[in-house]
Amino acid sequence: MIFKQHLIFILYSLCASVFKVAGTKSKAKGGQGQFPITQNVTVVEGGSANMTCRVDYNDNTSLQWSNPAQQTLFFGDKKALRDNRIELIRASSQELTIKIGDVSLSDDGLYTCSLFTMPVKTTKAFLTVLGVPGRPEITGFTKPAMEGDIITLTCSTLGSKPAANIQWFRNDKEVQGTKELNATGKSFTVRSSLQFQVDRRDDGVAYTCSVEHMSLSKPYMATEVLEVHYAPHLEIRQPQMYPQEGQYFKLECLSTGNPIPEPVLWSKDGGELPDIERMIVEGRELTITTLNKTDNGTYRCEASNHLGTSSAEYPLFVYDPNALGQHGPDHALIGGVVAVVVFITLCLIIVLGRYLARHKGTYLTHEAKGAEDAPDADTAIINAEGNHVHAEEKKEYFI
Hints:
By secondary structure, the chain is of the alpha+beta class. It has 4 helices and 27 strands. The N and C termini lie far apart (153 Å).
């Protein structure tokens, strides 16, 4: 009887130990698996955001999503906030996924997923809403601008989050502007200014403002073409010939200026053209059909716009074809002179070379001349020292 009671006690103890271990493992498993898992979400303003909360293990405990204002959006599959933009995607014991449509900057913030265990476990997920920048606008253009004016171009874009980046381009080359940033609520207004003094090289130049932002697949751009008015400048294209009697002759007056300086007026020696039958004006060109000596003189073209007047002059001298042939440069004579100079130079080089070759030998000074025939060294030294008396008569020669 005592043995039977002892055996029952042992079996009871073993069962209690088994149940205790199993309960401990189950509790540990539930404690580890019953912890909500979320992910941060980034969405462009106006798009849709899916917010997902999961647990690896759940013993029928409810999941809940709350917004940054701690308002409950969904408790399990029960909608708690009246907002038509928010809808349920999936609700189960291990997942709660909701969708927020037509997202605005006010939806940006920290969302909370709660698992209602004891105690309640929570995990945060940040919803980042990118504010799309407005298309840029360029202000400050004056049409037309006058050469020498100082103008300031300003490019503005509104509503970006984070702040957009603005770049300036003069035609295709980037130029640096001055940036200004202002916050309005959660979005930013970005401005960039470009100040410079206008000159005629800016006429027709395209100034482009480029806006870059992480919400854009390609930059927004705005371009304005600068129109610059400037005073005229004239010059006469020189003919590539000696004007000769009987020839056809043409002068062209080249002009720059904005507005284009018109009309172009031609004159000779301060007066009107003397022979309008032979001297024909067509736009910017003056043509003399047949030159003669009476056409000698100074020809002038002149043109104006509202900013000023410019002129250019050309002195015309008409040559006699026969005299030009007699007094023109004699290329054959020049060639002959060059050939003679080259020949003389070569001869000098040859003579100098032969001279140096013939006089190559032992170099002796006059002091040593008496020592070379001495019978012994002492006599050579005496003879050499004796020659020092005649130091003023030192000469050098070659043997």
